[in-house]
Amino acid sequence: MSVRVRFAPSPTGFLHIGGLRTALYNYLFARHHKGTFVLRIEDTDQSRYVSDAEQDIIESLEWAGIQIDEGPHKPSSFGPYRQSERKERYHKFAQQLIEQDHAYYAFDTTEEIEEMRERLKKSGNPSPKYDSITRQSMKNSLTLSQDQVQEKLQQGDEYVIRLKVPRRDTVKFKDEIRGIVSFDTAGLDDQVLLKSDGMPTYHLANVVDDHTMEITHVIRGEEWLSSAPKHMLLYKAFGWEPPTMAHLPLIMSPSGGKLSKRKAETEGIPVNTKEYRFGYYEPEALINFLAFLGWNPGDDSEVHNMSSLCEKFTLDRVSKGGAVFNYKKLMWYNEYYVHHHRTIEDLLPQIQQMFSASGLKANDATFLKMVVTLLHERVSKVDEFVPMGRFFYEAPKDYNEKALKKWSDQSAVLVKSFIGRLIEIAEQEFTAVAIKHALEATVDAESVGFGKVMMPVRIALSGQSFGPDLFPAMELIGKTECLSRMQTAVGRLG
RNA sequence: UCCCAUUUAGUCUAGGUGGUUCAGGAUACCCCGCUUUCACCGGGGAGACACGGGUUCGAGUCCCGUAGUGGGAACCA
């Protein structure tokens, strides 16, 4: 049987970075086995529905290089792919469970359930729930007569359908990552399967859909491990073969706990895939980083593109413990991909667009190409080209604080001396080589080290204490502009 | 509080079937080198098997406890 996996996000907001990793693992698993990767939208909670979310999910996956084989925008025979559009199926199956005594109608109001919880808490039950014991004293089709139930249904009373969890039983199943896990049904509640608004809960919907969509492997976050026994109970009740289960370790925040939106923000970690998309991150770097957050190929290799990851990925190499999101490691990957996998040619259009967006006229393609070449190896994310390359297009408006500390008392004198040499050079001969000779002459004449002259010149030209190779940079900027900036600096800094 | 999972350096991790290539790699950090600066690059350094029992001639590796961490305990997914 061919492998079919699904990524089943809830459209309640932008695609979370943890969701992206879950999608990635599913995708890698699918591709490794030449199977199918399905996107299913779990929009059963109408109160939390966000209309742009689905589009964001699809675009984000696409940006990351995760190709969806089937989904709401790519239908096939297993559709529809939005749970809201599969409503009737859930009703039918819920009905079936009732008929087979695996589920029942419950008419209790939220107030009544709350009351029950309060009552049990007072009598010493720390975590009261609607279960095999308490259901006997509630309003449901197990305690009411058949006539009463029929009457209530007919007069349109609100109801839910609950799973009838067996009283004393042990649910055991094999998780591909964790091995055998077992749960006592005494710890489970009679999970609501069909809500009073007619929508299924996640639990019913995911079981019905995974089965009818012929999903072979359920690969999802560890937060679902606790409800997995309910799902196994459902498969059993339906008489269906459950798919293979694999619960992934969670991505943790550096300060501990699941990497939530709020936590991530306070720790400076972008949490929505969207932020990476529009933040000029390299998708391959993010993917490589995410793949290694909870998985590794078993050798000492660190860099893998998507196809290599597809080839190497297996569930038995996924680790069990939560993995802390390390932003610096991500940046290392990003830098690596910028340096090794992006050529100057491929960077040019993007850089030009960025320069233009920040008001710099980067129209000269040859000039821009030189700028990008000079900057390429010292940039770790492509948007850094702008602040680093700005001085190629305009004189610094002010001087960086750190840079100013390197402007010494003798700097002005040395820069002036250098200016004297540069003036001698003809405009058309103002080349990196010529400039270097001029500097050497200056250094000789003044009996100082290279740096004593270079640093002040750099500051004068760029306003900063670091940056690309200075001689070619000066050639690009041109004689007139260089001299003007140096004179300005001498005048302003003394 | 209950249930489940999990636990190798700051972080991500390698360590099928227990025995002087078992404590390795990467990142981060520190130092040195290269260099006009910053980075890149090259070299080096410090840093870990949660704790306690057991099984065994021998355990990071198996078993049991304890602790820490995380998840769950909804008509949310």
Helices, strands, pairings?
Blueprint: E1 4-7, H1 17-32, E2 36-39, H2 53-64, H3 87-99, E3 103-106, H4 110-122, H5 146-154, E4 160-163, E5 170-175, E6 179-184, E7 192-194, H6 202-212, E8 217-221, H7 228-238, E9 244-248, E10 251-252, H8 261-266, H9 273-277, H10 283-291, H11 306-312, E11 323-324, H12 327-341, H13 344-357, H14 365-375, H15 385-389, H16 401-405, H17 411-424, H18 432-446, H19 450-462, H20 470-477, H21 479-493
Parallel strand pairs: 1-2, 8-9, 10-11
Antiparallel strand pairs: 3-4, 4-7, 5-6
This protein binds one RNA strand of 77 nucleotides through strand 6, helix 6, strand 11, helix 12 and helix 19.
What characteristics describe this protein?
RNA-binding, Rossmann fold, mainly alpha, Glutamyl-tRNA Synthetase, domain 3, 5 domains, three-stranded antiparallel sheet, elongated, 494 residues, two-stranded parallel ribbon, Glutamyl-tRNA Synthetase, domain 2, single chain
